[in-house]
Design brief:
This protein has 342 residues and is α/β, with parallel strands linked by helices. The chain has two domains: 186 residues, P-loop containing nucleotide triphosphate hydrolases (Rossmann fold, 3-Layer(aba) Sandwich); 108 residues, Magnesium chelatase subunit I, C-Terminal domain (Helicase, Ruva Protein, domain 3). 40% of the residues lie in helices and 14% in strands. It contains 14 helices and eleven strands. It has a five-stranded parallel sheet with strand order 2-5-8-1-9. A two-stranded antiparallel ribbon has the order 3-4. The radius of gyration is 22 Å and the shape is globular.
């Protein structure tokens, strides 16, 4: 299956019930192809949960939902061993984390102790309980939603937790046209259309496509550009903490996935620039005085992008599966002709 065709099928399925940003849907699919997890942050009621549910239903595989509350315990996520008095043995009952797609709704309403139960699962695709390591299903994706930290009853995510997310999104309010579609979609029913979605993908499809993404070509100039962006965040006087190497690697692979979703077998600067903000936003910490002055992570990242010169893309020197020339006697080909089975 071509990555572009897969992305269109899943994107159309999600778009049939979620009428917000198509760019957000595409970025989620890029994270899926990179074995990454996604954090969706915004005010209540703008479609965070609907987007996550629609993505989960369209991707296929097993699905579980965790509704976070202050009294949620780590064992409510990873599972617990229950004593059976009949045979005098403990029986392990798996938690909802053991699914292909896990929706963690309002993650910052859970206490830091409970949030930490997700760390090993998100980083290594496994959990440790009762001195035993249990592998999680593959593929494994966490889609988490978060309310702004100044809302009542929320706990800020620790830096280690935020760094486990491949990228973060903020949906914003829908446009007038999009909100009209929302009203029309539920004109004759109180239930949401997302409940009727069926899978258009299989777990084995996702695994195969994840391997294909790694073949997308990234030139040396663009690799240096990625490193230049991360270095700019580390050297900024506005930041207390810059982007980690995990962040530069996420931007590298994310650009590969975005290029593949758009039918290319090579990355261009626009792929990197488009993902820089969602990949970097939760991986930096503002200086306290800058935060008090109203500075935001988005402003700092955009300033860093302005400081680093954008390389001029050249023709891929080693394209993956280059197309056969139309004229056997003519070995030349244009930049836009290089397509792979993505």
């Amino acid at each position: 299956m071509r990555i572009q065709e897969w992305g269109k099928a899943v994107g159309d399925s999600v778009g049939s019930v979620f009428f917000g940003s198509r760019q957000a849907v595409e970025q989620i699919l890029a994270a899926v192809l990179c074995r990454g997890h996604v954090l969706i942050e915004d005010v209540p009621g703008v479609g965070k949960t609907i987007l996550a549910r629609a993505a989960a239903a369209s991707l296929g595989g097993t699905f579980a939902r965790i509704q976070c509350t202050p009294d949620l315990m780590p064992t409510d996520i990873i599972g617990v061993s229950v004593y059976n008095p009949a045979d005098g043995k403990f029986t392990f009952r798996p938690g909802p984390i053991e699914a292909n797609v896990v929706l963690v709704d309002e993650i910052n309403r859970a206490t830091p102790r409970t949030q930490s139960a997700l760390l090993e699962a998100m980083a290594e695709g496994q959990i440790s309980i009762d001195h035993e390591v249990r592998k999680l299903p593959d593929p494994f994706l966490v889609l988490a939603t978060e309310n702004p930290i100044d809302f009542e009853g929320t706990y800020p995510l620790p830096e280690a937790q935020k760094d486990r997310f491949f990228l973060s999104l903020s949906l914003g309010y829908p446009s007038g046209d999009a909100e009209m579609l929302i009203l029309e979609a539920q004109n004759h029913s109180l239930s949401h259309p997302v409940e009727n979605l069926t899978a258009v993908s299989l777990p084995e499809d996702v695994l195969a496509l994840q391997n294909q993404v790694l073949e997308v070509y990234v030139s040396t100039e663009l690799r240096r550009y990625i490193l230049g962006l991360t270095a700019a965040t580390r050297e900024s006087s506005l930041l207390k903490l810059g982007v980690s190497p995990r962040g530069s690697l996420a931007l590298f692979h994310g650009a590969q996935a975005l290029a593949a979703l758009r039918g290319r077998d090579f990355v261009i600067p626009e792929d990197i620039r488009e993902l820089a903000l969602p990949v970097f936003a939760k991986r930096i910490i503002l200086m306290p005085d800058q935060a008090m002055k109203g500075m935001t992570e988005e402003i700092v990242i955009r300033r860093c992008m302005e400081q680093v010169p954008v390389p001029v893309p050249g023709k891929p020197r080693n394209p993956v599966n280059p197309p056969e020339p139309e004229n056997p006697g003519n070995s030349g080909s244009s930049l836009n002709s290089g397509k792979v089975d993505v």
